[in-house]
Amino acid sequence: MTRRGRVALVAAGIVVAVTAAAVPLLALGGGGDTEPASLVVPEGRRAARVYESIDKALDLEPGTTRRSVAAAELELPEEADGNPEGYLFPGTYPLGGKPTPEKMLTAMVDRANKAFHGAPVAAGAQRNSLDVYQAVTIASIVQTEAATKDDMGKVARVILNRLERGMPLQMDSTLNYALGRPAHAPTTEDTGKDSPYDSYRRMGLPPTPIAGPGADAMRAAVEPAPGDWLYFVTVRPGDTRFTADLARHRRDLEESDRARRSASPGEEAAAG
Fold first, then answer.
1. If we measure between CA atoms, which residue out of 79, 82, 84 comes closest to residue 104?
2. Domain ranges within the chain, ordered by starting residue
3. pLDDT of 71-85, one tens digit each?
C-alpha cells in the first residue's frame, strides 16, 4: 500500500490511490572504462530485473539468464515450482573467475536459503502459523510496500491481520507485479484481470513472492509489530498512517490525495 507507487482502497467498486517514493535502479560495481567488479542486487528487485542485470554484467544476449534458470538446478522450495522469485537474494556478487548465469543464480539462491531457512526465520514463521515460503512471500510484499524500515513491522502486521480476518490484502504491489509494471496507480479495470496476484479480488497470499526481500523485511515478516491495524497510507513523505478504522482510513486517503494534487510537478515526479 505504499513505497513504490500508490496505496489503493477498493470500496464499493471505487479505487482511491496515493503516490509514494521510488526505488533506485540496479547498480553495477566498478566504474569508468573498466569492467565491473561486481553485480549489486538491491533489496526489492524482481527476478526479471535481476536476469536483465546479469545479462548486462556478463555481456550476454538479452534473455540468456532467464533461459538459464532451469539449467541452474537451483535449490528452491517445492512450492516455488522452479521459480526463483524472492530467492535471488539482495547483495553484492563478484564477477571474477569466469562467471556464468547459472553460477550467479546459484550464488543468490544459496544466500537466500542460508538467510531464510535458519532457525530464527523458521521459528518466527511457525509462531505466526506460516511456513518459510509464505514468510518470504509476506516479506517481499513488505519490502515493496513499506515506506521506511520502521514501517516494515507494521505493514507485516496489516498483512497478517487481514489474512486472519479473511480479508483480501488489497496491495498495489501484487497487482503491479501481475501486470509486469513498476509502481502505478491501479484502476478498477486493472483489478478485473484474472490473475492469482490480484490481491483485490483474490483471497490469501499470491502464489509466489513478488521481489527479493532483504533482512529487515524478512525480520518484519516473522516478528511483526503488535497492533490491530488493517489499513495504511502514506499521506506525505515521513507520514504513513496505520489504522483499524475504515472511516479514518478514508479520511487519510482523501488528505493524501489532496497533498498529492497540491505538490509541485517536480515533487510529484520524484514521488511517482
1. 84
2. 7-23+130-271, 27-116
3. 999 999 999 999 999
